[in-house]
Amino acid sequence: MLKEEIAIFWFRRDLRLTDNAGLYHALKSGLKVLPIFIFDKEILDKLEDKDDARITFINKEIEKLKTQIEKLNSSLLIKYGKPDHVWATIMSEYNVKAVYTNHDYEPYAVERDNNLSANFSKKGINFFTYKDQVIFEKSEIVKDDGNPYVVFTPYKRKWLAKLSSFYIKPYPTKKYFKNFIDIKPFDIPSLELMGFEKSNQHFPDQEFKDVLNDYGVDRDFPAKDATSRISVHLRFGTVSIRDLVKVAQEKNSDVWLSELIWRDFYFSILFHFPYSATASFRKEYDQINWRNNEEEFKAWCEGKTGYPIVDAGMRQLNESGFMHNRIRMVVASFLTKHLLIDWRWGERYFARKLLDYELSSNVGGWQWAAGSGVDAAPYFRIFNPYEQVKKFDKDYKYIKKWVPEYADPFSYPKPIVDHKLARERCLETYKKALK
Fold this sequence. Notes:
Elements: E1 5-11, H1 21-27, E2 32-40, H2 41-44, H3 53-70, E3 77-81, H4 83-93, E4 95-102, H5 107-122, E5 126-130, H6 152-162, H7 215-218, H8 231-236, H9 241-250, H10 254-272, H11 294-302, H12 308-320, H13 325-338, H14 343-353, H15 359-370, H16 385-392, H17 397-402, H18 419-434
Cofactor: FAD; (6R)-5,10-methylene-5,6,7,8-tetrahydrofolate
Protein name: Deoxyribodipyrimidine photolyase
GO biological process, one term: response to light stimulus
Protein backbone atom coordinates (compact mmCIF):
# COMPACT_ATOMS: atom_id res chain seq x y z
CA MET A 1 0.00 0.00 0.00
CA LEU A 2 1.29 3.47 -0.87
CA LYS A 3 1.91 5.84 1.99
CA GLU A 4 -0.63 8.65 2.28
CA GLU A 5 0.17 11.63 0.10
CA ILE A 6 0.83 14.68 2.27
CA ALA A 7 1.90 18.30 2.12
CA ILE A 8 4.50 19.73 4.45
CA PHE A 9 4.51 23.18 5.94
CA TRP A 10 7.99 24.36 6.89
CA PHE A 11 8.04 26.85 9.77
CA ARG A 12 11.00 29.23 9.65
CA ARG A 13 10.60 32.92 10.52
CA ASP A 14 6.86 32.56 11.18
CA LEU A 15 6.47 30.73 14.47
CA ARG A 16 2.70 31.09 14.84
CA LEU A 17 -0.46 29.30 13.74
CA THR A 18 -2.63 32.39 13.18
CA ASP A 19 -2.44 34.72 10.18
CA ASN A 20 0.32 32.71 8.52
CA ALA A 21 0.29 32.96 4.71
CA GLY A 22 2.16 29.78 3.79
CA LEU A 23 0.41 27.70 6.44
CA TYR A 24 -2.97 28.92 5.19
CA HIS A 25 -2.19 27.81 1.64
CA ALA A 26 -0.85 24.45 2.82
CA LEU A 27 -3.94 23.71 4.89
CA LYS A 28 -6.17 24.64 1.94
CA SER A 29 -4.25 22.43 -0.49
CA GLY A 30 -6.52 19.39 -0.16
CA LEU A 31 -3.69 17.32 1.34
CA LYS A 32 -3.14 16.50 4.99
CA VAL A 33 -0.40 18.76 6.34
CA LEU A 34 2.64 17.75 8.39
CA PRO A 35 4.26 20.82 9.98
CA ILE A 36 8.02 20.80 10.48
CA PHE A 37 10.79 22.99 11.86
CA ILE A 38 14.51 22.57 11.17
CA PHE A 39 17.23 23.77 13.48
CA ASP A 40 19.59 24.62 10.63
CA LYS A 41 23.10 23.36 11.35
CA GLU A 42 24.51 25.63 8.63
CA ILE A 43 23.35 28.63 10.68
CA LEU A 44 23.84 27.30 14.21
CA ASP A 45 27.42 26.18 13.65
CA LYS A 46 28.42 29.80 12.97
CA LEU A 47 27.13 31.08 16.32
CA GLU A 48 29.92 31.85 18.78
CA ASP A 49 28.08 31.77 22.11
CA LYS A 50 26.83 28.47 23.46
CA ASP A 51 24.23 30.27 25.56
CA ASP A 52 23.02 32.32 22.59
CA ALA A 53 19.70 33.67 23.85
CA ARG A 54 18.08 33.50 20.42
CA ILE A 55 18.35 29.70 20.36
CA THR A 56 16.67 29.53 23.76
CA PHE A 57 13.96 31.90 22.50
CA ILE A 58 13.35 29.82 19.38
CA ASN A 59 13.32 26.62 21.42
CA LYS A 60 10.71 28.05 23.82
CA GLU A 61 8.52 29.25 20.96
CA ILE A 62 8.83 25.90 19.17
CA GLU A 63 7.71 24.14 22.35
CA LYS A 64 4.66 26.44 22.53
CA LEU A 65 3.88 25.83 18.87
CA LYS A 66 4.22 22.08 19.28
CA THR A 67 1.84 22.12 22.26
CA GLN A 68 -0.73 24.11 20.28
CA ILE A 69 -0.54 21.71 17.34
CA GLU A 70 -0.81 18.66 19.59
CA LYS A 71 -4.10 20.01 20.93
CA LEU A 72 -5.27 19.60 17.31
CA ASN A 73 -4.35 15.86 17.41
CA SER A 74 -1.24 16.46 15.32
CA SER A 75 2.37 17.35 16.13
CA LEU A 76 5.35 19.35 14.96
CA LEU A 77 8.25 17.41 13.46
CA ILE A 78 11.44 19.08 14.69
CA LYS A 79 14.78 18.20 13.12
CA TYR A 80 18.38 19.30 13.67
CA GLY A 81 20.83 19.16 10.78
CA LYS A 82 21.72 20.56 7.39
CA PRO A 83 18.53 21.22 5.44
CA ASP A 84 19.43 19.09 2.42
CA HIS A 85 20.20 16.11 4.69
CA VAL A 86 17.04 16.63 6.74
CA TRP A 87 14.88 16.82 3.63
CA ALA A 88 16.44 13.68 2.18
CA THR A 89 15.39 11.83 5.34
CA ILE A 90 11.88 13.30 5.34
CA MET A 91 11.31 12.41 1.69
CA SER A 92 12.40 8.84 2.36
CA GLU A 93 9.93 8.52 5.25
CA TYR A 94 6.86 10.31 3.86
CA ASN A 95 5.04 10.48 0.55
CA VAL A 96 5.49 14.24 0.12
CA LYS A 97 3.62 15.83 -2.79
CA ALA A 98 4.13 19.49 -1.93
CA VAL A 99 6.17 21.69 0.40
CA TYR A 100 4.85 25.06 1.57
CA THR A 101 6.78 27.80 3.33
CA ASN A 102 7.14 31.57 3.51
CA HIS A 103 9.74 33.69 1.75
CA ASP A 104 13.10 34.39 3.34
CA TYR A 105 15.10 37.16 1.70
CA GLU A 106 18.59 36.76 3.14
CA PRO A 107 21.31 35.62 0.70
CA TYR A 108 21.96 32.29 2.43
CA ALA A 109 18.24 31.50 2.59
CA VAL A 110 17.68 32.39 -1.07
CA GLU A 111 20.49 30.07 -2.17
CA ARG A 112 19.28 27.29 0.16
CA ASP A 113 15.71 27.53 -1.14
CA ASN A 114 16.84 27.59 -4.78
CA ASN A 115 18.86 24.42 -4.26
CA LEU A 116 16.04 22.68 -2.42
CA SER A 117 13.52 23.73 -5.05
CA ALA A 118 15.64 22.08 -7.74
CA ASN A 119 15.88 18.88 -5.68
CA PHE A 120 12.14 18.84 -4.99
CA SER A 121 11.41 19.32 -8.68
CA LYS A 122 13.50 16.27 -9.60
CA LYS A 123 11.34 14.20 -7.28
CA GLY A 124 8.07 15.64 -8.55
CA ILE A 125 7.44 17.65 -5.39
CA ASN A 126 5.94 21.10 -5.76
CA PHE A 127 7.59 23.88 -3.73
CA PHE A 128 5.39 26.88 -2.88
CA THR A 129 6.59 29.97 -1.02
CA TYR A 130 4.62 33.05 0.04
CA LYS A 131 5.07 36.61 1.24
CA ASP A 132 4.47 36.73 4.98
CA GLN A 133 7.01 38.76 6.97
CA VAL A 134 6.59 42.08 5.12
CA ILE A 135 3.68 44.08 3.73
CA PHE A 136 5.38 44.79 0.39
CA GLU A 137 8.31 42.80 -0.96
CA LYS A 138 10.76 42.58 -3.83
CA SER A 139 9.49 44.81 -6.66
CA GLU A 140 6.05 45.64 -5.27
CA ILE A 141 7.21 49.16 -4.39
CA VAL A 142 9.44 50.56 -7.14
CA LYS A 143 9.78 53.76 -9.14
CA ASP A 144 7.57 54.36 -12.15
CA ASP A 145 10.43 53.19 -14.39
CA GLY A 146 10.65 49.88 -12.51
CA ASN A 147 13.91 50.66 -10.71
CA PRO A 148 14.10 50.18 -6.93
CA TYR A 149 13.97 53.11 -4.57
CA VAL A 150 17.22 53.86 -2.75
CA VAL A 151 15.84 56.87 -0.84
CA PHE A 152 13.37 56.20 1.95
CA THR A 153 10.96 59.15 1.71
CA PRO A 154 9.64 58.50 -1.83
CA TYR A 155 9.56 54.76 -1.03
CA LYS A 156 7.44 55.49 2.03
CA ARG A 157 5.15 57.78 0.04
CA LYS A 158 4.40 55.07 -2.51
CA TRP A 159 4.15 52.40 0.22
CA LEU A 160 1.45 54.40 2.00
CA ALA A 161 -0.36 55.16 -1.26
CA LYS A 162 -0.52 51.46 -2.11
CA LEU A 163 -1.56 50.26 1.34
CA SER A 164 -5.17 49.12 1.58
CA SER A 165 -7.18 46.78 3.78
CA PHE A 166 -6.39 43.97 1.35
CA TYR A 167 -2.71 43.96 2.32
CA ILE A 168 -3.34 43.72 6.05
CA LYS A 169 -6.21 41.27 5.99
CA PRO A 170 -5.32 38.25 8.18
CA TYR A 171 -5.13 34.76 6.72
CA PRO A 172 -7.94 32.69 8.33
CA THR A 173 -5.84 29.64 9.13
CA LYS A 174 -8.09 28.51 11.99
CA LYS A 175 -10.78 27.49 9.52
CA TYR A 176 -8.55 24.73 8.22
CA PHE A 177 -6.84 23.37 11.34
CA LYS A 178 -8.71 20.10 10.79
CA ASN A 179 -6.39 19.46 7.85
CA PHE A 180 -3.31 18.88 9.99
CA ILE A 181 -2.23 15.26 9.74
CA ASP A 182 -3.24 12.97 12.62
CA ILE A 183 0.02 11.83 14.11
CA LYS A 184 1.57 10.97 17.48
CA PRO A 185 3.74 13.58 19.23
CA PHE A 186 7.35 13.92 18.14
CA ASP A 187 10.32 14.60 20.40
CA ILE A 188 12.24 17.89 20.47
CA PRO A 189 16.01 17.81 20.02
CA SER A 190 17.59 19.17 23.21
CA LEU A 191 19.70 22.29 23.30
CA GLU A 192 22.58 20.15 24.54
CA LEU A 193 22.31 17.86 21.52
CA MET A 194 22.75 20.91 19.30
CA GLY A 195 25.73 22.15 21.32
CA PHE A 196 23.93 24.93 23.19
CA GLU A 197 23.07 25.81 26.76
CA LYS A 198 19.90 27.39 28.09
CA SER A 199 20.15 31.17 28.33
CA ASN A 200 18.78 33.01 31.34
CA GLN A 201 18.06 36.08 29.21
CA HIS A 202 14.75 37.84 29.78
CA PHE A 203 12.58 38.00 26.66
CA PRO A 204 10.08 40.83 26.15
CA ASP A 205 6.44 39.86 25.91
CA GLN A 206 4.04 40.84 23.15
CA GLU A 207 2.14 43.51 25.13
CA PHE A 208 3.32 46.78 23.62
CA LYS A 209 0.29 48.79 22.50
CA ASP A 210 0.25 51.29 25.38
CA VAL A 211 3.68 52.70 24.49
CA LEU A 212 2.32 53.84 21.13
CA ASN A 213 0.23 56.54 22.81
CA ASP A 214 3.31 58.77 23.25
CA TYR A 215 5.72 56.94 20.98
CA GLY A 216 6.46 59.91 18.71
CA VAL A 217 7.35 62.07 21.72
CA ASP A 218 9.23 59.64 23.96
CA ARG A 219 10.96 57.16 21.67
CA ASP A 220 14.28 59.07 21.48
CA PHE A 221 14.90 59.05 25.24
CA PRO A 222 16.65 55.80 26.22
CA ALA A 223 15.90 56.11 29.94
CA LYS A 224 12.17 55.89 29.23
CA ASP A 225 10.39 52.60 28.69
CA ALA A 226 8.90 54.04 25.51
CA THR A 227 9.69 51.54 22.75
CA SER A 228 7.64 48.51 21.80
CA ARG A 229 10.30 45.79 22.31
CA ILE A 230 8.26 43.78 19.80
CA SER A 231 11.15 43.44 17.36
CA VAL A 232 12.33 40.01 18.56
CA HIS A 233 8.80 38.67 18.03
CA LEU A 234 8.64 40.25 14.60
CA ARG A 235 12.05 38.80 13.76
CA PHE A 236 10.95 35.24 14.47
CA GLY A 237 7.36 35.66 13.37
CA THR A 238 5.61 35.04 16.66
CA VAL A 239 3.54 38.10 15.68
CA SER A 240 2.16 39.05 12.28
CA ILE A 241 3.37 42.16 10.47
CA ARG A 242 -0.18 42.68 9.24
CA ASP A 243 -1.45 42.83 12.80
CA LEU A 244 1.23 45.34 13.77
CA VAL A 245 0.35 47.66 10.89
CA LYS A 246 -3.30 47.52 11.95
CA VAL A 247 -2.31 48.44 15.51
CA ALA A 248 -0.28 51.40 14.21
CA GLN A 249 -3.34 52.59 12.31
CA GLU A 250 -5.68 52.12 15.26
CA LYS A 251 -3.32 54.07 17.51
CA ASN A 252 -2.70 56.74 14.86
CA SER A 253 1.01 56.20 15.43
CA ASP A 254 2.51 57.43 12.18
CA VAL A 255 6.00 57.42 13.67
CA TRP A 256 5.79 53.76 14.67
CA LEU A 257 4.26 52.86 11.30
CA SER A 258 7.22 54.60 9.67
CA GLU A 259 9.55 52.25 11.58
CA LEU A 260 7.71 49.27 10.10
CA ILE A 261 8.03 50.82 6.63
CA TRP A 262 11.79 51.23 7.14
CA ARG A 263 11.90 47.48 7.76
CA ASP A 264 10.19 46.76 4.41
CA PHE A 265 12.53 49.27 2.75
CA TYR A 266 15.65 47.49 3.98
CA PHE A 267 14.26 44.12 2.90
CA SER A 268 13.75 45.62 -0.55
CA ILE A 269 17.32 46.94 -0.64
CA LEU A 270 18.73 43.54 0.30
CA PHE A 271 16.64 41.86 -2.38
CA HIS A 272 17.67 44.25 -5.15
CA PHE A 273 21.27 44.72 -4.01
CA PRO A 274 22.35 41.47 -2.27
CA TYR A 275 26.02 42.51 -2.43
CA SER A 276 25.24 45.19 0.18
CA ALA A 277 25.03 42.51 2.88
CA THR A 278 28.82 42.43 3.02
CA ALA A 279 30.02 45.38 0.91
CA SER A 280 29.26 49.08 0.92
CA PHE A 281 26.19 49.96 -1.09
CA ARG A 282 28.10 53.03 -2.28
CA LYS A 283 31.14 51.16 -3.46
CA GLU A 284 33.53 54.11 -3.21
CA TYR A 285 33.24 53.81 0.57
CA ASP A 286 35.10 50.51 0.45
CA GLN A 287 38.17 52.61 -0.33
CA ILE A 288 38.22 54.05 3.20
CA ASN A 289 41.46 53.29 5.03
CA TRP A 290 39.98 51.96 8.26
CA ARG A 291 42.26 51.97 11.31
CA ASN A 292 40.69 48.80 12.74
CA ASN A 293 42.53 49.02 16.06
CA GLU A 294 41.69 45.78 17.87
CA GLU A 295 42.23 47.16 21.38
CA GLU A 296 39.89 50.05 20.70
CA PHE A 297 37.34 47.67 19.22
CA LYS A 298 37.55 45.54 22.36
CA ALA A 299 36.98 48.64 24.52
CA TRP A 300 33.94 49.54 22.40
CA CYS A 301 32.52 46.00 22.68
CA GLU A 302 32.95 45.97 26.45
CA GLY A 303 31.57 49.48 27.02
CA LYS A 304 34.88 50.92 28.23
CA THR A 305 35.51 53.77 25.80
CA GLY A 306 35.31 56.58 28.35
CA TYR A 307 32.25 57.99 26.61
CA PRO A 308 29.34 57.24 28.99
CA ILE A 309 26.51 57.25 26.41
CA VAL A 310 28.44 54.85 24.18
CA ASP A 311 29.41 52.60 27.06
CA ALA A 312 25.87 52.53 28.43
CA GLY A 313 24.58 51.34 25.07
CA MET A 314 27.15 48.59 24.71
CA ARG A 315 26.63 47.34 28.25
CA GLN A 316 22.88 47.30 27.72
CA LEU A 317 23.42 45.25 24.57
CA ASN A 318 25.80 42.80 26.25
CA GLU A 319 23.54 42.27 29.24
CA SER A 320 20.08 42.34 27.71
CA GLY A 321 20.42 41.63 23.98
CA PHE A 322 18.66 44.94 23.36
CA MET A 323 19.83 48.43 22.49
CA HIS A 324 17.70 51.53 22.18
CA ASN A 325 17.47 52.72 18.57
CA ARG A 326 18.82 56.22 19.29
CA ILE A 327 21.77 54.67 21.05
CA ARG A 328 22.37 52.25 18.16
CA MET A 329 23.00 55.30 15.98
CA VAL A 330 25.34 56.84 18.57
CA VAL A 331 27.49 53.75 19.10
CA ALA A 332 27.64 52.99 15.37
CA SER A 333 28.72 56.52 14.54
CA PHE A 334 31.33 56.37 17.30
CA LEU A 335 32.83 53.12 16.02
CA THR A 336 32.95 54.11 12.37
CA LYS A 337 33.73 57.82 12.71
CA HIS A 338 35.58 58.34 16.01
CA LEU A 339 37.54 55.10 15.92
CA LEU A 340 37.56 54.58 12.13
CA ILE A 341 36.71 50.91 12.51
CA ASP A 342 35.05 49.16 9.58
CA TRP A 343 31.26 49.11 9.90
CA ARG A 344 31.34 45.37 9.19
CA TRP A 345 33.10 44.77 12.52
CA GLY A 346 30.26 46.48 14.35
CA GLU A 347 27.60 44.78 12.24
CA ARG A 348 29.06 41.37 13.10
CA TYR A 349 29.13 42.19 16.80
CA PHE A 350 25.50 43.27 16.71
CA ALA A 351 24.71 40.08 14.80
CA ARG A 352 26.18 38.13 17.68
CA LYS A 353 24.43 40.01 20.48
CA LEU A 354 21.06 41.41 19.34
CA LEU A 355 17.98 39.35 20.16
CA ASP A 356 16.18 41.02 17.27
CA TYR A 357 19.06 40.74 14.81
CA GLU A 358 17.77 41.24 11.28
CA LEU A 359 20.40 41.18 8.52
CA SER A 360 18.73 43.71 6.23
CA SER A 361 17.93 46.30 8.92
CA ASN A 362 21.20 45.82 10.76
CA VAL A 363 23.33 46.23 7.65
CA GLY A 364 21.15 49.16 6.60
CA GLY A 365 21.59 50.86 9.95
CA TRP A 366 25.33 50.35 10.08
CA GLN A 367 25.83 51.61 6.54
CA TRP A 368 23.63 54.61 7.35
CA ALA A 369 25.94 55.45 10.24
CA ALA A 370 29.08 54.92 8.16
CA GLY A 371 27.69 56.97 5.28
CA SER A 372 28.12 54.09 2.85
CA GLY A 373 24.53 52.92 2.45
CA VAL A 374 21.26 53.95 0.86
CA ASP A 375 19.79 57.23 2.05
CA ALA A 376 22.71 57.45 4.45
CA ALA A 377 23.82 60.25 6.72
CA PRO A 378 26.52 62.29 4.91
CA TYR A 379 30.01 61.26 5.93
CA PHE A 380 30.65 64.64 7.58
CA ARG A 381 27.73 64.09 9.97
CA ILE A 382 29.52 62.84 13.05
CA PHE A 383 27.50 62.37 16.22
CA ASN A 384 28.92 64.26 19.17
CA PRO A 385 28.45 61.87 22.13
CA TYR A 386 28.44 64.75 24.62
CA GLU A 387 25.69 66.57 22.74
CA GLN A 388 23.68 63.35 22.50
CA VAL A 389 23.74 63.14 26.30
CA LYS A 390 22.53 66.75 26.61
CA LYS A 391 19.67 66.13 24.19
CA PHE A 392 18.51 62.67 25.17
CA ASP A 393 19.82 61.81 28.65
CA LYS A 394 20.42 65.18 30.31
CA ASP A 395 19.65 63.79 33.79
CA TYR A 396 22.00 60.84 33.19
CA LYS A 397 19.29 58.34 34.13
CA TYR A 398 20.20 55.96 31.32
CA ILE A 399 23.92 56.35 31.92
CA LYS A 400 23.59 55.89 35.70
CA LYS A 401 21.71 52.64 35.14
CA TRP A 402 24.29 51.05 32.86
CA VAL A 403 27.52 52.86 33.84
CA PRO A 404 27.13 53.56 37.57
CA GLU A 405 30.86 54.32 37.97
CA TYR A 406 30.97 56.96 35.21
CA ALA A 407 31.56 59.88 37.65
CA ASP A 408 34.40 58.14 39.51
CA PRO A 409 37.77 59.08 37.94
CA PHE A 410 39.40 56.09 39.63
CA SER A 411 36.94 53.52 38.26
CA TYR A 412 35.82 54.89 34.93
CA PRO A 413 38.31 54.96 32.02
CA LYS A 414 39.38 58.19 30.36
CA PRO A 415 38.13 58.71 26.79
CA ILE A 416 40.09 56.49 24.40
CA VAL A 417 40.03 59.25 21.80
CA ASP A 418 39.55 63.01 21.88
CA HIS A 419 36.29 64.01 20.18
CA LYS A 420 37.68 67.02 18.30
CA LEU A 421 40.79 65.21 17.07
CA ALA A 422 38.74 62.13 16.12
CA ARG A 423 36.33 64.25 14.12
CA GLU A 424 39.13 65.95 12.19
CA ARG A 425 40.84 62.60 11.54
CA CYS A 426 37.59 61.11 10.28
CA LEU A 427 36.90 63.96 7.89
CA GLU A 428 40.42 63.79 6.50
CA THR A 429 40.29 60.00 6.06
CA TYR A 430 36.90 60.03 4.34
CA LYS A 431 37.91 62.89 2.04
CA LYS A 432 40.99 61.01 0.87
CA ALA A 433 38.94 57.90 0.10
CA LEU A 434 36.11 59.71 -1.66
CA LYS A 435 38.00 62.29 -3.72
